[in-house]
Amino acid sequence: MASSTSQSNAKRHTLSVLVENRPGVLARIAGLFARRSFNIDSLTVSPTERPEISRLTVTAHVEQEPLEQIIKQLNKLLHVLKIVELDPDTTVERELVLIKVAADVQNRSDVLELVRMFRAHVIDVNTESLTIEATGSQGKIDALMDLLQHYGVIELVRSGAVAVTRGPKALSDKVVGSEITGR
Fold first, then answer.
1. pLDDT confidence of 2, banded at 50, 70, 90?
2. pTM higher than 0.85 for the full model?
3. Which DSSP state fits 168?
4. CB neighbour burial string for 105-138, b if at least 16 within 10 angstroms, e if fewer
5. How far apart are alpha carbons 46 and 172 in whole angstroms?
6. What does the angle CA 54 – CA 58 – CA 62 come to, to the nearest 5 degrees?
7. Non-local CB neighbours of 12 within 8 Å, separated by 6+ positions
8. Domains, the chain, ranges and CATH?
9. In terms of Cα–Cα distance, which of 68, 73, 79, 8 is closest to 45?
10. What is the rounded CA–CA span in Å between residue 106 and residue 127?
11. Which residue has the higher pLDDT, 176 or 120?
12. For the chain, what is the mean pLDDT?
């Protein structure tokens, strides 16, 4: 009974983590989640506007109290510069998906209509399939994938979330050079 209560209190959280651009940092962060028995829903790593800093965007379904413990432990890791839990109300979040769908003469126009409705793009055409590129919120991507299942999804790859806060400030604004070299 306690486990079902904990399941119902878990909600999706998005963390933005600035790290020094060094080998092994990603493995240590993913390992911390694994040791705490939390599954990462998506993990995206990319360079930032500063070449010495990388940004990880991590989404996971976690209860608030364990999430706070994870953030405290992440802050203790070497080469982790800053961690922010992103507020969905003040964040722009997008995913990219590439979906290869079975599309022959009979159903191609229907698939193309769905692509148009979702403002997606066909990036490869074959006599038996179409490859579609779509970007958007998790909900938009999920909805498109659900509708395309009917036609037969041959293959798909999904990027995971990338996110930034709205407005002019950058997450790295308060990270200075001495924090990077002085750790």
1. very low
2. no
3. S
4. eeebeebeebbeebebebeeeeeebbbbebbbeb
5. 14
6. 150
7. 41, 59, 60, 61
8. 2-85 (3.30.70.260), 91-162 (3.30.70.1150)
9. 79
10. 11
11. 120
12. 89
